């Protein structure tokens, strides 16, 4: 699958989605949001895909809105649809039944940062930077970042990142809990693929349940979490993958999960 703004490849259990507007540092347009949402739908529906790897073609992950697209003549409805497009994509990244790894090469700014934050994992190249400049330029945050960011880094640090709008590098992002790992620039995408491949080898139904329940953690009581975990353990115990995991452990080999 390849469209004007997205490159999509699926192999080895990984759906690799690359934002493909390198001439504009992958700045987002309505078309990019629509095509990215469609690509995520393809990954969701593909039973062979276990994990999604989201990255940017060229020198950047995504530098936010393409301001050249915000021309005179766009109606208020057009502007709202564009903004709604990001909300739809970020919600889909968050709620996708499969883990999403954002491989941040270069800048992830504004909407680019918001898409990364909506993903399950953020890997950053050594030279990459991430930031939320919206308040600094008179616009506002989107993609659920006001909900997600405080849960990742705490309210005090979230205020700092939003109000100052400063870009930070990978080491700082990892230190505050925003990113998971910093990887060398050289061979960055290959290292990100290796990370995603390790996730792809896990039991898909178990991962789906884990993602759902971790995302709900802040909304549940402890007793509700226990109930949800009990239901989850009971469910996976009925699957072939559960038996495969038990057998592989006993036989001292790697399990081969089928998602059933």
What does this structure look like?
With 260 residues, this protein is α/β, with parallel strands linked by helices. The protein folds into two domains: 6-200, 2-enoyl-CoA Hydratase, Chain A, domain 1 (Alpha-Beta Complex), CATH 3.90.226; 204-250. It has helices spanning 30-45, 76-95, 111-118, 145-153, 155-164, 170-175, 188-200, 204-215, 222-236, 240-250, and strands at 6-11, 14-19, 51-56, 100-104, 107-109, 121-125, 129-131, 168-169, 181-183. α1 (30-45) runs parallel beside α2, α4 crosses α5 (155-164) and α8 (204-215) packs antiparallel against α9 (222-236). Belongs to the enoyl-CoA hydratase/isomerase family. InterPro entries: ClpP/crotonase-like_dom_sf (IPR029045), Enoyl-CoA_hyd/isom_CS (IPR018376), Enoyl-CoA_hydra/iso (IPR001753). This is 2,3-dehydroadipyl-CoA hydratase.
Q: What descriptive keywords fit this protein?
A:
six-stranded mixed sheet; 2 domains; three-stranded mixed sheet; alpha/beta; 260 residues; 2-enoyl-CoA Hydratase, Chain A, domain 1; 9 strands; 15% strand
Task: Offer a quick outline of the entry.
It contains ten helices and nine strands. It is of the alpha/beta class and 260 residues long. Helix 2 packs parallel to helix 3, helix 4 (145-153) crosses helix 5 and helix 8 runs antiparallel to helix 9.
């Amino acid at each position: 699958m390849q469209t004007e703004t997205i490159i999509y490849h699926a192999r080895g259990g990984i759906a690799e989605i690359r934002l493909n507007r390198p001439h504009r540092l992958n700045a987002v347009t309505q078309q990019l949001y629509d095509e990215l949402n469609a690509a995520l739908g393809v990954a969701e529906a593909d039973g062979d895909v276990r994990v999604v790897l989201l990255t940017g073609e060229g020198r950047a992950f995504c530098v936010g809105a393409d301001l050249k697209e915000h021309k005179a003549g766009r109606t208020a409805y057009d502007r709202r649809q564009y903004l709604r497009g990001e909300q739809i994509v970020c919600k889909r990244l968050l709620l996708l039944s499969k883990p999403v790894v954002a491989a941040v090469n270069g800048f992830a700014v504004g909407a680019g940062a918001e898409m990364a934050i909506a993903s399950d994992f953020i890997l950053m190249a050594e030279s990459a930077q991430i930031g939320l400049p919206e308040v600094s330029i008179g616009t506002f945050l989107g993609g659920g970042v006001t909900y997600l960011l405080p849960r990742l880094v705490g309210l005090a640090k979230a205020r700092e990142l939003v109000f100052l709008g400063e870009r930070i590098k990978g080491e700082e992002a990892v230190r505050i809990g925003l990113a998971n790992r910093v990887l060398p620039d050289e061979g960055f995408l290959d290292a990100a693929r290796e990370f995603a491949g390790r996730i792809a080898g896990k039991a898909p139904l178990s991962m789906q349940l884990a993602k759902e329940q971790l995302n709900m953690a802040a909304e549940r009581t402890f007793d509700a979490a226990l109930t949800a975990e009990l239901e989850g353990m009971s469910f996976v115990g009925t699957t072939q993958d559960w038996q495969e995991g038990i057998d592989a452990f006993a036989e001292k080999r790697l399990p081969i999960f089928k998602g059933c």
